[in-house]
Design goal:
245 residues; mainly alpha; Serine Threonine Protein Phosphatase 5, Tetratricopeptide repeat; 12 helices; 74% helix; elongated
Amino acid sequence: MKKSIILLLGIIFFVGCKSTDKIDYSNDQEIFLNAVKLFNEKKYDAAYSLLDIIALQYPASQYADDAQYYTAEINYAKEEYIIAAFQYNKLLRNYSASDYSKASMYKIGLCYYQLSPPYDRDQDYTQKGIHSFQEFLSLYPEDTLSIDANKKIQELRNKLAHRLYFTGQIYLKISSPLSALIYFDDVINNYNDTDYFEPAFLLKIQTLYDIKHFEQLKSLIPVYKNLFPQSPSIAKIDIIYNEIR
């Protein structure tokens, strides 16, 4: 509702004003509407300056939360995702009842999603993205954005599983199978909804076979076959199973 009112006010305001008119800096509404106009024109630095005036001179204005949200949107549009996340969080802290709270919470997740690096790098932002989207889903489980939030959580979880799987492979290459098993187990126990669940299971079986932990294999292989009955690796697994029985 508030966004619709702002849009209506903007139409009325800009129909009645020429672009060359000077801004009345004693009028918070005029400052804000000019800032929105500049934002829509992608003149982000100029819009940012006007929004900053509202934050500094009109902290109790009815447009204070709007200004805060658009400030964050500018940072996001400029791909300044760390600053944008800070600005969205600031809105949630200072204007918890704002109409922009839901969008801000979702956008925080998007900021960390954008910051999430390739799987072979530190995954701190990936973890933060998952946490932010989960927080959004806990408050707005039926929202239309929930579908996208769940997809992004799955994508980020897949990246975390990939990193664990990759790390396990590295330990195998440097002849540290017991360390490798720790990472494969992490994938198996905590990321069974990802693309790396079955590959981690397979490498665990192969690693246990290589280090001759046959008793553990005897109980693990039936579990694998039950979980992945259509796997193309079943024949290979059967050969191992028949050999160790």
